[in-house]
Amino acid sequence: MTPFIAALAIEQVFRAQALPIELAVEDAGANIALPPVKRIEIDSGALVEQLARAGAPMARIFDFLKETLSAPAFGGSSPRNHRFLLTVLAGISRQDGFIEILGVSEYGGLLVQGWSAHLRAGTIEVEIVTDRFEVQNLAVATFERADLLNTAKGIIGYSKDASVGTLATVRAIHFRSGDEYLRLDVVNAQAIYLDNAASVAQLKDMLPKLEGPPPVLQALKRVVRPRFPGHETVSTFAEPVRIACDVALHLDGHGIFVSGWLLDPGQRMWLALLKSTANFYARLHPIWARLPRPDVSQGFEADPQMAPLMASTDHRHGFLAFVPRTTPMAANEKFYLELVTKDEACAFLPITFAEDEPSLIVRSLLAGVSLDDPNLERIISQHLGPTVSALADRRAAPETPCAPIGFGHSRPQPQLSVIMPVPAAYRDIDVNFACLATDPDFRAAELILLAAASGISAAALKAQAAFYGLSGKLVIAADGMDTFEAMDLGARYAEGELLLFLSAAVFPRAPGWLSRLTAELARMACPGLVSPTLMYEDESIRFAGQPLDAGAAPLASSARLAGYPADWLSERAPVAVAAAAPECCLVRRSLFQELNGFSRALVGPALKGLDFSLKVRGHGRACTWVPDIRLYALDDDSEPGEPDYWLRGGQMVDRWAFERQWCAPAAIGSLLD
């Protein structure tokens, strides 16, 4: 015969006397029918007495009930379950000592002091009894007391997660010791209740006397550390440690970025923390990236406290770190850096979040990191990637410094808007005008030109447009806009139902190609983007669709058959592809607006076209390549070849962000390709 205890959830408990009850035992081959229930005890105290008389293992039974009744099927943490468990616990536990002092720390939790015969130092699960039942971990340290027998010791315990509202409601703390439950009762009228300051003072006074495992003693030391006073204390810190914060950013919904420098030539620092007055806490030192800062070394080379400890070859004083945090900031929440030395001394540095224009911050962050740093992969994936992508996405939509300048005859409600960015050094716009003017497909189209104010003459443009009979708008783009930012700006001023994004470096082989491209978009079951074949001027292939392979990661450089002779093209009918050609693609304006245009989370232009194609496909629309419509796409020599230093870093961040969103995890080194 095997004794057992079981819990049965039924809506009407008294029906258990009338219902047959069977146990389904694994590997038994058949259910076991239980005899009829003769008596149902409503008083849980009587149930405990019966089990105890039968010699049942009461500690094991309580643990089973505690775990089982916490399940939703049994009511979870309902008041009824709490009352039942409290009654059982009171009936099985044996008094083992008393709690004489109770307090709370500044950050909440429960601090207790008293004595016990069996409670040992360490972290132990306890049941805290107030007017309810709460299971928590208690960090316990012990100390010698002359007024106790040799078998008992004084104890101090701290539970940081205990949610005790009023100290006076605490009645007892129960804990398991071996095969039984023991309890420490509060000494009722003689108990001492301490507020935050008094609790910290009491624990600080007791610390030298306490014994216990190092993690427990460290946890208790944390309770008594100095608190953030609301101002910096680094400048007056006695230890040879200094810290400064150069940039702090709060990226709402993403996290917090901090960068600066820490000078610790004597290796005194134990913890570097990012904290807030609303109990936010993050350890920086395990995750931050350290950077060379020789300027910091130079600044302290004559300091009498620092200089003797500094190594002439060690300049990695800089740091940057991104800390994830998705919750919004609380009202009046203040953030600060906290340094803790190995002897528990603390220094504090308040930080203020920068509110500059995101584009300026992005440029500054990327310019401040060495592209030759051996840890660049980690710096981008863990810190700069999340930070710069979140910042870039916050950038304002492209704006024009002045109202669009109309040219030609106004065409009310055009069906098509041709959006053409004009590079700053481009001088052959008349060739583009001639190609458009001689093609009947463009007679009713609206032409939107995007150009920097320093790169085009509005008067000359009007004269040329009048000569060729073209109509549209000149939108002045801010200096430094990339092609996709310019096209995004142009789309905001477009009036046509269809948008044709057309590079100034794309030229037709013959007229009539636009009407064929428009017809293909109209025929598509799920219209998204449609592009023609693009050829180099030597008749080799520049764009013939990207392979639509679900098992492969899309890449900006994976254009099919690029560089091959045109004779290699065997397709004639339109083909679904992974991405369209941003140099020449047709899309409905409503879809472009629905997808919020080209990405602003990417820093540079290299991946924005592919990213938009993938957004279109992710929206359930198709990208189509029409093989037998062929245009020339010449190399654009008007744009500078080598990007600025900060933009080279931005390209690496973009690759990380792109792969995180659209691809499998990047292989080591792929960011540096």
TrEMBL record:
InterPro entries: Nucleotide-diphossugar_trans. Keywords: Glycosyltransferase, Transferase. Gene3D superfamilies: Spore Coat Polysaccharide Biosynthesis Protein SpsA, Chain A (3.90.550.10). GO terms for molecular function: glycosyltransferase activity. Belongs to the glycosyltransferase 2 family. This is Uncharacterized protein. It comes from metagenome.
